[in-house]
Amino acid sequence: MDNMHWWLVCLKGFRSTKIYGKGNTGDKDELSDDNESVSSSDSHVSYIEDDQDTTSTTLKSMIVGEALWDHSSLRKDHLEFKAGDLIEVLQQNGKWWKGRTDSGKLGWFPADSIRLRVSQEADDQDSKRELKLAPRRMTILQRMNTMSGKPKLNPDWVRQKVIEEIINYEEGYVKNLRDVIEGPLKEARLRNDLFDETKIDRLFSNIEELYQFQVKFVEELKKRLHSVVYKSQIGDTFTENHDKFVDIYSRYCNNHSSALAEYTLLNQHMVYAIFFESCRLLKDMESIPLDGYLLKPVQRICQYQLQLKELVKYTSQSHPDFTAVGEAESIMRRVASTVNERKRRIENIKKLAKWQSTIEDWRGEDILVKSSIMLHSGSLYKISAGNKQLRRFFLFDRQLVYCRKLLASGKLQYKGRISLDRCKIEEVDSELGITHGWRMENTVKHKWVVLLSKKASDKDRWMSAFKEERTQIEDDKANNFTISQHLRRAAYVQVVHETSKEYSRTRKLNSLSQIKYKSTSNLKDHVLIEEPTVDLRQKDKKSKGFSNKLFLRRQKKMS
User: Fold this and answer.
1) What is the DSSP letter of 71?
2) How far apart are CA 337 and CA 157, in angstroms?
3) pTM of the prediction?
4) Quick check: 156 and 290 in contact, CB under 8 A?
């Protein structure tokens, strides 16, 4: 496109819509079991505040959906759930819905993270899941079964509706892929000043190959449709394309985290934000950011499993499609499980980067160089060189980090780490007067340290956590899971960006807190009056800080 046309489109976009992709600051999230918490933010908070529709629908009848993947958030008003959980939808408000889980928790969640069931009846698998829930409150399934006047659904009708849903989803999905290819991807290849081949490959991956596969797949589905829809046999369409599903989607999903990291880094610059928005307007795409479109394939692979699960439920054993649909559901369940686990691990990366930013005096390589998940944490006594010290330990894959809690600020100060790849763990003989302890030895440097827990149960939990850590390493090797340098850099850049926003917001609130507000008798007219006040804390600040320094010096000499 010529430059004049391009900038006109940009101007139009900024007047009519917002540039998305920069999240707001969220609430705190606890990474550990104790009171130390790590503040973080949710990169999708802006969807609730800026992206929601003006029309809000409160549902009068009970509607239940199933979660496509795990959803975790750092905001208290968000609803957290696991893949496959039942969610009762209470309110539909644009791209964010309000719902309730079986535990009774209320909150908002992304509308595209669940699939609404065609049938609102409970099946045998749901009943087994219900037995694990607390019996003191009526669960979602119990309320589904006790709704008055609910007619029994015809299995053939439900099967027809599920097949129609699969076809309709496929057509919309193919359109979304085509919009990305003919919009942002096509324009990016024309802008050599903004995008090189590395950026394009990292951002869009094999989306063109995926689009060509989906076009052929939806054509095969339509060929299998019967004039009487519920008699259609579509199961073998999935089983015959099993290898392609695994190959194409595995490569896309493996790169998806790098694509989101690349988009996050680029969208920090105004020129790229304008470019992405102008491409959306030129193609007349939906009002969602590019990372929302890049999420569509991950979302679709999770939807397949839930749709096929309901299709199996309402396919009689005498139906010629029964066996094929069952095999297809099993295949898609394994693929969706792998995708969901990888998505959860990538979300942990940002939490680890945020955790490291809260540690004082960090030394050595960053935590994400070797680790991607925190497995356990707690307070232990450390015995080394004849000294016994209380430290806070954090167990990650491949390393164990320990810190000291600063008495003045309450923050954690980095003290050291133990590499678990070359570490041997041995039980300590209780005859030596040491209980609930174990010995960790570096097999290369031949240095050792003894760790003590307060209770035997704490020691058992740590021992099982060490075994879990070794198992996690083996699973990552088998699944070829690694954290690219680009993904690590994006995580730290995003944390720095959010921390600076939180710092500026805190400074603004602190400055406002020094001003006293008084209002007149007329509540509509508020007068801002600034009065000089004497702050007793400022008056005693010098002496208090001096005494704290002396106390810390004495503690340092004693330790």
Assistant:
1) B
2) 29
3) 0.55
4) no
